[in-house]
């Protein structure tokens, strides 16, 4: 029994020790839990206080107006107290956001993660230059051609200046000058005069001396190709060079400097022609009319004299093509009625069937090629009809010759019904009475019988 009691006491002591250990463990665990709870409480985010306001409470309307339920229901006001959901600070707040629109232009900080980032690049060593894309000369010539052709019609230099500034790069202005001269060489003398005036007016504004010099150098180098389409290309280009020197667009030493660049015959011919024009007496003054005076600016007397020479040369040679070329060079399509008038008067004064047939064939050739329009033809005939009484003073048989010439033109199909209807005829002298008529007839019969004997 004693042994049993001893065993019980031993077991009791071990149980008490176990209880103490359990209590210590629980206290340590409670302490740890309280510490972690305090940390969690300290780090826990406090909930945002949401302030709600009833529409019926605190109404600031002066009249004590209370919104109805439906109007409050359809209101666009935020109901959650957090605003409308827009980004903070206009997109500039917070981490990992894009930032305000346009803020990337104001940033000076370089991104090291950028694949184009260069650590050895210094911002002070960067130099920005304007890069102008190179335009092929052929495509640029196609753009310049309508500008030049429109200028021939309108003569508006300001429009050309604006178009050149907008469409032609500054380093390719010589292509514009070259294209203008090439087009003018294939046109009439009046167009060449306009081109020379255009180059002179654009010089100092959109064209420089180097542009014009380079253009003429290219034209002289391509002279062998230009002569295929323009047989007198060396003479025409020499006129352009001399005119540009007279207008102070290129220096006089240009001819001396470029003579040694080529030994071709046509190349030297153009330069010799330009040098001859400049070295003649009062050459710089005369070069103002190197292309001649245009048709609209030419005096009427000079035009009439040229038309008379044209008609006389045709009557003697019979070359209708040469007469047509001379008429085109006058460049006065509105004044062709003067040619018709002078041609008819020449036929009346000649009183020769050969001259009448030649004039009729010339008018037919002009009418067939529509070089002289029907309107100009009719106007020339009507002018002769109106001046016929004065013409009869120099040509007494004018009515008879004109009648014969009208019949010849009618057979050739030149005359219109309007011209034939207005053809005048010389009126007969009126007798005072029928008795005078018979008396006159009796006198004529007696005179005729006396003459027979």
Q: Main traits of this protein?
A:
453 residues, mainly alpha, Serine Threonine Protein Phosphatase 5, Tetratricopeptide repeat, disordered N terminus, disordered C terminus, nucleus, Initiation_fac_eIF4g_MI, cytoplasm, Programmed cell death protein 4, PDCD4
SSE blueprint:
Layout: H1 2-43, H2 69-73, H3 137-154, H4 157-167, H5 173-185, H6 189-202, H7 209-221, H8 223-229, H9 233-246, H10 254-258, H11 265-279, H12 283-286, H13 300-317, H14 320-330, H15 336-350, H16 353-368, H17 374-394, H18 398-412, H19 417-421, H20 434-452
Spans of at least 5 consecutive residues whose pLDDT stays below 50 are: 1-13, 53-63, 427-453
Radius of gyration: 53 Å
Mean pLDDT: 77
Fraction of residues in β-strands: under 5%
Second-tier CATH architecture of the domain at 137-289: Alpha Horseshoe
CATH topology of the domain at 137-289, what is it called? Serine Threonine Protein Phosphatase 5, Tetratricopeptide repeat
Describe this structure in words.
Among the domains are: 153 residues, Serine Threonine Protein Phosphatase 5, Tetratricopeptide repeat (Alpha Horseshoe), CATH 1.25.40.180; 123 residues, Serine Threonine Protein Phosphatase 5, Tetratricopeptide repeat (Alpha Horseshoe), CATH 1.25.40. Helix 9 packs across helix 11 and helix 15 packs antiparallel against helix 16. The chain is elongated, with a radius of gyration of 53 Å. The chain has 453 residues and is mainly α. The longest helix has 42 residues. It has 20 helices and no strands.
């Amino acid at each position: 029994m004693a042994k049993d009691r001893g065993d019980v006491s031993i077991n009791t002591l071990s149980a008490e020790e176990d209880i103490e250990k359990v209590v210590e463990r629980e206290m340590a665990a409670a302490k740890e839990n309280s510490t972690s709870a305090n940390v969690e409480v300290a780090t826990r985010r406090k909930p945002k206080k949401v302030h709600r306001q009833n529409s019926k409470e605190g109404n600031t309307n002066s009249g004590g107006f209370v919104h109805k339920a439906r109007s409050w229901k359809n209101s666009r006001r935020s109901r959650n107290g957090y605003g409308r959901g827009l980004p903070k600070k206009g997109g500039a707040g917070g981490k990992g956001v894009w930032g305000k629109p346009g803020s990337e232009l104001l940033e000076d900080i370089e991104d090291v993660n950028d694949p184009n980032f260069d650590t050895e690049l210094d911002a002070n060593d960067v130099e920005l230059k304007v890069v102008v894309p190179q335009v092929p000369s052929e495509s640029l010539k196609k753009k310049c051609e309508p500008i030049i052709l429109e200028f021939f019609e309108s003569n508006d230099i300001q429009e050309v200046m604006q178009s050149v500034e907008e469409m032609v790069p500054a380093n390719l202005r010589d292509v514009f000058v070259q294209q203008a001269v090439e087009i003018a060489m294939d046109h009439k003398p009046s167009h060449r005069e306009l081109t020379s005036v255009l180059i002179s007016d654009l010089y100092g504004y959109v064209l420089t001396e180097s542009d014009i010099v380079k253009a003429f150098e290219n034209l002289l180098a391509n002279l062998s190709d230009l002569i295929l389409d323009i047989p007198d290309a060396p003479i025409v280009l020499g006129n352009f060079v001399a005119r540009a020197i007279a207008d102070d667009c290129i220096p006089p030493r240009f001819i001396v400097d470029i003579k040694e660049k080529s030994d071709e015959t046509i190349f030297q011919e153009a330069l010799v022609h330009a040098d001859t024009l400049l070295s003649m007496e009062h050459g710089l003054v005369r070069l103002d009319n190197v292309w001649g005076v245009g048709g609209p600016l030419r005096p009427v007397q000079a035009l009439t004299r040229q038309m008379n020479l044209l008609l006389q040369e045709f009557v003697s040679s019979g070359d209708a093509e040469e007469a047509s070329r001379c008429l085109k060079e006058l460049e006065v399509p509105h004044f062709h009625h003067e040619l018709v008038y002078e041609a008819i008067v020449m036929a009346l004064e000649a009183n020769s069937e050969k001259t009448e047939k030649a004039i009729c064939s010339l008018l037919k050739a002009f009418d067939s090629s529509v070089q002289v329009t029907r309107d100009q033809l009719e106007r020339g005939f009507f002018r002769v009809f109106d001046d016929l009484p004065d013409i009869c003073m120099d040509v007494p048989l004018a009515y008879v010759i004109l009648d014969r010439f009208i019949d010849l033109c009618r057979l050739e199909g030149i005359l219109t019904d309007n011209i034939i209807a207005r053809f005048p005829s010389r009126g007969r002298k009126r007798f005072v009475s029928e008795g005078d008529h018979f008396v006159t007839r009796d006198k004529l019969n007696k005179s005729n019988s006396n003459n027979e004997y």
